[in-house]
Model the fold of this input.
Amino acid sequence: MTPDEFRTHGKALIDWIADYYEQIEQYPVLSQVAPGAVRAALPGAPPEQGEPFAALMADVERIILPGITHWQSPNFFAYFPANTSFPSILGELLSAGLGVQGMLWQTSPAVTELETHVLDWLVEMLGLPERFLSSGAGGGVIQDTASSAVLAAMLAARERTADRGPQTTDSRQPTKDGALAAVGGRRSQTSGPSAVGNDPRLRAYTSTQAHSSVAKAAGIAGVGRDNLRAVGVDEKFAMRPDELRRLIEADRAAGLRPFFVVASVGTTSSTAIDPLPEIGAICREFGLWLHVDAALAGTAALCPEFRHIHDGLELADSYAFNPHKWMFTNFDCNCFWVADRAALINALSILPDYLRNAATEAGAVIDYRDWHVQLGRRFRALKLWFVIRSFGVEGLRARVREHVRLAQLFAGWVAADPRFELAAPAPLNLVCFRLRQGGDAANRALLERLNASGKLYLTHTVLDGRYTLRLSIGGTLTEERHVRAAWEEMTNDE
Amino acid sequence: MTPDEFRTHGKALIDWIADYYEQIEQYPVLSQVAPGAVRAALPGAPPEQGEPFAALMADVERIILPGITHWQSPNFFAYFPANTSFPSILGELLSAGLGVQGMLWQTSPAVTELETHVLDWLVEMLGLPERFLSSGAGGGVIQDTASSAVLAAMLAARERTADRGPQTTDSRQPTKDGALAAVGGRRSQTSGPSAVGNDPRLRAYTSTQAHSSVAKAAGIAGVGRDNLRAVGVDEKFAMRPDELRRLIEADRAAGLRPFFVVASVGTTSSTAIDPLPEIGAICREFGLWLHVDAALAGTAALCPEFRHIHDGLELADSYAFNPHKWMFTNFDCNCFWVADRAALINALSILPDYLRNAATEAGAVIDYRDWHVQLGRRFRALKLWFVIRSFGVEGLRARVREHVRLAQLFAGWVAADPRFELAAPAPLNLVCFRLRQGGDAANRALLERLNASGKLYLTHTVLDGRYTLRLSIGGTLTEERHVRAAWEEMTNDE
Done:
């Protein structure tokens, strides 16, 4: 494809995308294809000769589009949103166009410095504690997802715990023979778990309502999913600090090593908000790393009136939220901060010869490869910068407020209708509700009817053992008329 | 931004990108900015009000562009390439435009099915073993990077090892109190390390020349970097199978549990190719999982004449290569296959209630969230599909052949010049070389002079303890004239 052909096809694709958004309400929100249907329409063998771009786009319309569940539809109320916006799409386009890889500061200084800068901006925008600013001992980085952020936090916590106290070594063998002098270019700098392996006495804690990524991270890190304790919750589905304390004290009494707590600001099932002041105080008392996962809800803190969700966050060691959920920035974009970047870097840094360079050796720069699992990294700060500058902070706030207003409006309708009940508090933009009559079967039938209609898409959870519908409002294009239509569709025939 | 404004700005951005590629040789390849210069040009506070798109693009030109190291320049010879192409940029644009998130089959069936399909195509295109096809027990998935692929392989290997034999449990405590009934929705299905934590006797193996990501993965997984054995290499920098066997046997004799070997097809320092037939036979004999990392070199197998690099791959349990390095697909895009997907899924699957759905429960579909660290995922198959269809397999082969031809041409010039010497064999598109006189200081000075000129960018490694220059040829736009100019610049003044 020549530059001139790129100009032609690229402009046609820009129009295609604009058309898509203008027509998006025409499509069934949840894809209606059967398993295997997309593959069945694709040729069995790759083409030997190149094909014209028009042939690709024809197949996009014929084969791909029916297999799309339209996350950007204003009638998408499932899971949590993964909203995007035109400025974000253009930021992603520019990132792809520049085609740079920012593993080291040197491999494109703007990738690193814009990222640090925008993450510092966000500390101000969300009113986060100053200890997360890069000017001190902390700092922020873009991870792909909240799953990677909680894993990174757990690894940093594990490393810091090892630095603070003796390791159990009775079950380990000396490793002198064939020890790792050359792999990775130098020996690891610590004697912590990243170097010598896990202490099997490590124990982590999160609530029964926490996201599955916490257990997944415990599995990946070799801590073990079963060594992640499930802390009970209160009637609002928020973690009970007394229960957390009881579990930690029992584990300590048994000779185990509590090291890590994940608190949720906005759980996935019901946006429950764990009490950070009490949890943070317990973590300080026992020397545990506190990670706060605010993947969806964090964005609400753009608005001063919702900033209370972060009360107590000054006691946290790390924090993450997803602009790719509710801040109009396309997936993937998780923002992750640590108060002490040294622990994170100790856990993840390896510097082979082929990555050595003057800027890194001088210590004058950040090399973000040491802040996450991956070595290479895309220029993701660009889309975030485009979004913040295009909307302005006031513009972002206005849209977040409107989403919360719509959710509260919907919650009011549910509460006022004798056929329905609210299943949990709705502090922000998610409403959990169910039919009072007919039990799980009736609620499941309602969900299936709604999704099969193609007019909207919502998903369920289980709260107090009962099947519960979730209406999650965060689409960039969602307006009151869409929420009103959803309610009408639900109450139709009921 | 309205759809009409998006049309206007988007088309201007398409032109900007086309212009960028037409002018790319004007920029210094390695960014010349000093640390902090990009940040210093950015305002300290985010804007309260939205700004026009023109203001953003003006800052891209004024602030961002000087901080870019131009990976797509035809004079970029550093590290390994991260090449891209116009069809790939358009694939990324379409993916951003659709804005879907493919964590489950249901959340956009086309995301999953196109990915499975294209990964099956690639098995054919590269002549990979049929056991990696999705029609059997195996299958492929797109990971972000080779670092994540080797981590996933290590986790699957760890899980399979646990399933095969008894765990050491003497240092573990029972976990009944607060055991994980609710976090993640259900208890883990295995009693392997993902559930109960690592066996501290686990030992892994890779060559002294392997990529740093292997040690990083051992650290992350809690195996411990020091429990990754560094296997010695031969005069071609390829792993010595006799040395591998000796280390495994010594570890077994010491009561340890060898479980995982990473072989490299094309090491980062010198594209050394480990002998897979011998290594694979040892892995089979001792029941170790063999992962093959062909991040850069794998692409060469598009050409039958280079397919010998994969001899013995039928003995591997997993394999990865990066289309984002040498196959014209923009970063990030790593293709990862396993012969037995059950081990991988066992290590990573968690199904909370809020992700349950009929398609998943029926077992009729793939949910790729169980194949990697992250839960959410972008529609990355789109750009790969666009690249394969736009170039055609013949078109891809032609460009790969040309890159190899250029590297061999350059290697010939080095070999024929008495001032220089080749530092390692150059089997594909990377040439390692150095000045014969003046030692490391002279070679470092040469590298610094070349990079400071802005005319080209190359990086170094250390081989046999000596500072070595690397010329890596894989840019989409790199032609013979660029390689010739690089050689002239090197031999100028020498």
User: Anything to note?
Assistant: The first strand of chain B starts at residue 139 and ends at 143. Residues 166-188 of chain B have pLDDT under 50 and may be disordered. Chain B touches chain A through 187 residues (CB under 8 Å). The longest helix of chain B spans residues 381-416.
